[in-house]
Amino acid sequence: MLSLADVFLLMLFAAGAAWLWRGHGVRERALALAKQHCARLDVELLDGNVAFRRLAMVRDGKGNRRLARIYDFEFTVTGEQRLTGSIQMFGNHLGRIDLEAHPFQAQPQHDSKVIQMTEWRRNHPKTDEQRRVD
């Protein structure tokens, strides 16, 4: 027959296993968010994983202190150097993503709707009526 101490240890073990199982789901969500963030910034996520660093009490967007899981990952811009980033997760919700300072290339703008004013004025000289208004 089970004693109260045995039941307590069994429940403690089950709670620990459930916490680890949930942590694995949070890690998978953190990995997906890190991949999306790296793709949006046009940097490459290295090794395709995030590594659990620690649990910490962190302020959320509203200024409240909450328990957060913090994961580290590595990324590269040039393909030559490995830079680090971190992601904070409040349960399944994203806290913030921080990337180490890194070089980036400005994207060339190919917007055909941009008009240079000097060119426009050259092609559209003022009429006599517009000169009288000025």
How would you describe this protein?
The termini are far apart. The chain is elongated. It has helices at residues 4-41, 117-123, 128-133; strands at residues 44-45, 51-59, 65-76, 83-90, 93-99. Strands 1, 2, 3, 4 and 5 form a five-stranded antiparallel sheet that branches. A hairpin with a 5-residue loop joins strand 2 and strand 3. Helix content is 38%, strand content 28%. The chain is α+β, with helices and mostly antiparallel strands and 134 residues long. The longest helix has 38 residues, at 4-41. It has three helices and five strands.
Q: Helix segment count?
A: 3
CA radius of gyration: 27 Å
Overall outline: elongated
| Distance from first to last alpha carbon | 100 Å
Percent strand equals 25-35%
Summed over residues and divided by their number, the pLDDT gives a mean of 84
- Secondary-structure class: alpha+beta
Major β-sheet, in short? 5 strands, antiparallel
**SSE string, helices as H and strands as E:** HEEEEEHH
Number of E-state strands: 5
Return residue spans where pLDDT drops below 50 for at least 5 consecutive residues: none
Helix content: 25-40%
Features:
28% strand; single chain; 134 residues
List the helices and strands and how they pair.
Elements: H1 4-41, E1 44-45, E2 51-59, E3 65-76, E4 83-90, E5 93-99, H2 117-123, H3 128-133
Antiparallel strand pairs: 1-3, 2-3, 3-4, 4-5
